[in-house]
Amino acid sequence: MTTINSISIFFPCYNDKGTVEKLLNDSVATINKLGVEDYEIIFIDDGSTDGARELLASLQGRTPNFKVILHEKNFGYGRVLRSGFAAASKEWIFYSDGDAQYDVKELPLLISALEEGVDFVSGYKMKRNDSLSRIILGKVYQWGIKIIFMLKIRDVDCNFRLIRKYKMDQITLRSDSGSVCLELVKKLQNAKAIMRQVPVHHYSRIYGHSQFFNIKRINTMVITLFKLWWPLVILKKTK
């Protein structure tokens, strides 16, 4: 297997009290299996109200190189990702969601796809384990976004990604909402990042519920997409 020298692992969290401890334990086990000694694990809590913040605070000190960033209120998924990337200091950055619908123990699958010159490895869902309405909306969104923004990726919203830090330093994310996933992928594409893609499992939620698929958020997303199209597609901005 391809080896890496250092890695930052971070998880965006919002009301994920039921999954954060498992994610931490699985991250440590995965890092130990990979034999990476230079690492950090970061949880970014975006104003949780279910006790997740208190649990994360209690876990500090139990694991070396474990950090917690607390947002004073719920800013949105984009702001959380921006905080995570800003805090990450290692050669490689891996992130996945705090709801544990992806299995951090599959991180070696991403690492195995690394070849000379590869900057970015993104997972794509083998099968989406969500409600029928989310699956249908997700397929329509993915199909439309890939055409409109000319994306060369199978799964824009599979938040199971490994990215070289120096490539992240070449782009600037500005989105506060879930549109950050589109912005991230398109700006990396504009920055000529060399990408590989691997299939990963997607699991049903075991705790909490989705914050994204509601009418208010979808309306906001549509407006945001219109604002992003010109700078990302026509101007090919990375900053």
UniProtKB/TrEMBL annotation:
One of the record's GO molecular function terms: undecaprenyl-phosphate 4-deoxy-4-formamido-L-arabinose transferase activity
One of the record's GO cellular component terms: plasma membrane
InterPro entries: Glyco_trans_2-like, Glycosyltransferase_2, Nucleotide-diphossugar_trans
Keywords, ordered alphabetically: Cell membrane, Glycosyltransferase, Lipopolysaccharide biosynthesis, Membrane, Transferase, Transmembrane, Transmembrane helix
Pfam families: Glycos_transf_2
GO-annotated biological processes: lipopolysaccharide biosynthetic process
Glycosyltransferase 2-like domain boundaries: 8-154
Name used for this protein in its record: Glycosyltransferase family 2 protein
Gene source species: Candidatus Falkowbacteria bacterium CG10_big_fil_rev_8_21_14_0_10_44_15
